[in-house]
Structure formats: structure tokens, C-alpha cells
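job 3f2a | input accepted
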Amino acid sequence: MVIFMNKYEVLKKYFGYDGFREGQEILIDAILNGQDVLGIMPTGAGKSICYQVPALLLPGITLVVSPLISLMKDQVQALNQAGIHAAYINSSLTENQIAKALQFASAGRYKIIYVAPERLETHMFLEFAGSVQISMLTVDEAHCISQWGQDFRPSYLKIVQFICNLKHRPVLSAFTATATENVKEDIVCVLGLQKPRILVTGFDRKNLYFAVETPRRKDAFVMEYIKAHTGESGIIYCATRKNVDTLYEKLRNERVGAARYHAGLNSEERKVSQEDFIYDKCPVMIATNAFGMGIDKSNVRYVIHYNMPQSLENYYQEAGRAGRDGGQAECILLYSAQDVVINRFLLDSKEQNQEFTQEELKAIRERDEERLRTMSYYCMSKNCLREYVLRYFGEYGSGSCGNCGNCKSEFEVTDVTEAAKKIIFCVREVRGRYGINVVAGTLSGSDRAKLQEYGVSSYASYGSLNEMTETGIKQIIHQMLLDGILEVTKDKYALLRSSVLSEEVTEGNRKVMLREKRRSPFEETKSHAKHTGSMSSSRKRASDILNSRGLELFEHLRKLRTEIAKEESVPPYIIFSDKTLTDMCVKVPFNRGEMLCVNGVGENKFERYGARFLLAIDEFTGGEKEKYSFGD
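job 3f2a | predicted structure (632 res):
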């Protein structure tokens, strides 16, 4: 029985791995010692292993509270494929199905049960929880419990009451990929974690390439990009349902295998779209942020944001759905000034939670505005994009990652200190009553009606930068905001203020340098194709270590994987990941012992699929141990 195994045997037998990844063993040991834990680990770092391994070693049942039905389904499918009995309880099941699942759990059939937070307060589930031994309660996507988190869900607060109602308090473990310091403290406080082992393994996803593009025609950019990445799986996020539908129709008209997903589609349409994407029938998914939080698809090679998201937390979480298998992937954000307008409209339209006081709602709105500004500064930054994200989450890197759009671009650096001094003088002169647009218009000497109404022509700074365009002045202002020389108020009006650093500029002790990308001489769409091509050439996939014969073997095994996936009605990556297939091509196993040495092949997976993959390898190689990869 599992209870007599150790953590290494469980890892190898069920998951097919020879060793733990960074941070996993520390958290597993803490849980097995009865200590609460909080793990903040980037997407793809193996958070689920941290609670699934101890769940198999602890005596009772582990409950995993998860926010999305699709996430539960994926996780349970993967566990059952690995030979671990698991179940989920959510609204997709009938009451009879739920009763049957809880009956099996009470009889000891399941070690892990995934449950939606809303189910915790039902009479049937409370009765079940009071009659079994719950050894651990795991909160997945734990940032949802914090009102300062980017995806706060009031239903998550039910977890706290549920724990209080249990006769015996289980070990609590909480996991998330994105959490600022405030959110981290909120998770510990609200969940009531007792002397928890907190581990932050870092937020950096080194396999992801980040870039911000500002194309005049976003549709043309997307089309060129998809053509340059034919056959690869990707997600395109749009801010509105209308954008999703419009782009979907355009791609379908160009015969691109695309699916779409948003809350305006009925549940059956969403289900079909999701399955078409997961089962690789449609390589491209166009969706709003309603899609993806629970998608465990490992071979997504790119994520394009057609519009700027509302926050860096949202962006990093959505972009993080690329490259979950550890292979190189690209995250491209298409920015336009209109994106800020769209997002502010969405914030204005957001349904208000009646459980909050007016004061709390005001604080939350200010926080939303601050996040939106931080996100727009990311889009305008000319410095390392990865460093920008890491600093936001409290990490500091080298200042240049060498693998983002800004680090790979050539810039012209201009000293704009004199213009910056005039901007500071204007901000002080208007006494912080205006935002960027009015200040830029005042400095350029604009005579548009709104500025005349404000009477800005009476200021000494009016027209002091009339040799520049308003766009050019705004660029300098944005640079000064990024440098902390200027600040803005937290409300939606974002009124400009000078900071303590302004004095250094006006006194001549600090320079303001503006970095601008060198313009390509080519016309736009050719430039885009050239740029996306250069990104692709720098990207290395797991299969890139294979030689030409190795790639043929990889495709041979991939076809077999698709065939088995159709037979069993599960996503191909649930059978074996691309990384596992690549390792098969490198190691060329001919027997059980050799196959069990392949990364990701556990004993149960071997019993189910090993013989067919061994036969496929034998047929392809003729039983000869050729070299199918480069290097050693």
C-alpha cells in the first residue's frame, strides 16, 4: 500500500520523476511534519506535486479547494492516469453523482478530492467531512482569498468557516503563482495559517520571452504571427467579447484552426471550444480572461494579448499559460492607448461586491487604478521587461535578462533633462490639478477648446515646449513616472505631482534619459514578420535537441499519443508530455527498465501505455540503438 512508501518512491512510481524540483521537497517535508505551508511558485514549477505526494503518504483524505471546474477535471484525469484514485465535487455533477463520490470516498477509495468552495457549506458535504479523517486541506490559487488579489472570490471565505466546523483541524497548505507582499500576508492572516513554512521560489519563468508591440493593425500582426508559427498551440487574449468574435471570424475566414471562448457563449459552446483546443483539434484559442485559469495544457507555445490586461498579476498569470512544459515560449502584448480607455470602462462597469463598505470599495477601486497604471507603464517601459515584472513582485534581477523584446532591441538614448525641468515647473505651477493630457497640451501650447476652458494659456509654462509634439512630451512624462521623478494620484484622474526626486533634476544633480527603439526601415507587416521570425529563431523547444531522424521519431510517437488520446477521450498531454516524448527519442528505450528511466514515465503509465510505445520505437528503429539527438 502507498502508506508504506516514502516520498521518493511515490514520486517515481506515480509521477515518473527521479528527483524533486526546487522548493518541492521543503514544502512536502513540512506538511508531513504537520506544519502549515504557503508555497508561492511560478506556473509550471510543480505546485501540485507539493500537495499530491504528501496526500498519498498521509493517513486520511486530502481536500483540495479549487476555483474552476476545468482545473479540477484536468487534475483528476491526470491523477487517475497515473494510478491515483481521485474525484471532484462541483456543480457539473448531479446530486446523485456527488452522493456516490462521497460514498466511495468514505469507503476509502479516494485519497484526494477536489472541491469547489461553494460546496463546502452544503449539508451533504458537511456530513461527509464530519465522518471521515481529513488529514490535509489544500487551497489552490490561494490569492483568490485576498481582497487585494487580482481575482478575489468571496466564495473562498467559506473555507475559513469550513475549517472552524471540523472536529479536528487538518494541516493547511496554500499555493499560488502570483502574490505581492500584501496578498501573501492576507493569505496567511485570512486562512489562519499557524506558524507556516512560507516558501517563495521566485517568479521568474526563464523559458518565456516577453515583448510589447505597438502595431497600427493588430489583426495583421496576429495573422503574420500565426502563419510564422503554423501548427503550434497558442492563446490570444482579448479584453472584450466583441474583439474575440471579430478576430475569430477573421482567422476562420483565413482557414486558421481557431476556437473561441467567452462568457457570452452558452456552456455547451464553451465546452466544445475548450475541448477542441485541449485535444489539439484547434491549435489557436481566442478568448477573454474567462478562459484559462484551470487549463493545464502543457504545450502552449505562445500567448498573445490583443489588448492590455488590467493588471500585471492578470498579465503574468495569463502569459504564464505558455511553456508549462518548460520549453521555450513567447508572450507578446499588443499595446495601444485605447486599451487604457477600454480597461477603465471595464473597471467602471465591474459589479460591486455588496459585502464591502463604501470605504472598502473606494480603496479597492484605487488599487485597481494603481494596477492599471503599473500595467500601462510596463507597456511603455524601454528597460528590461522581465526585470520590471520581477520588481513588482518583490524580486530583483541583474537588470537585463537578454531574453525580452527590450533587451533584444536597439535603442537610441537621448538626454531630455532640459525638457524634464520645464515639465516639472509646469506640474508645480498648475499645483497638481491636472493629468498628463492637460500638462502635455499646456507645454505644447495647444489651443483646443478644453484647455482654453481651463485657462491654461495664462500659465508661464504655456507653450514652453512648443517645438515638441504632445506625444513627444508624454513620452518624457512617462519616462519620468517610470524613474519616480513624477508621481500620480491613486484615483482614476491620475493627477500629476512632482516627487522628492524632482528637486535633484531641477538642481542639476540628476539627468533624465529617454530610450527610444530604432525604427525599422521596412513597412509594417514585413517588419512584424521579420521580428516574429527572429523571435522564433531564438526560441529553443524541447525537441530542438533532436536531429532529423530524432524529429521523425518524435512525430511517430506524437501520432501514437494522439491515437491513444482519442481512444481514451483524454487530452494528449495527459498521456505523455512533449518533454517525455523527447526524452524517449533521446534514450531510445527497448524494454521496461529503460522506459521507466524516461522522465515522466511512472509505473502506472508504463502498465497502461508502455508496451505500445516500446513497439512503436522498435518498429521505427528496427531494434538498432541509433543516435537521435545532438550532443552527449
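job 3f2a | The CA atoms of residues 436 and 496 lie 7 Å apart.
job 3f2a | closed
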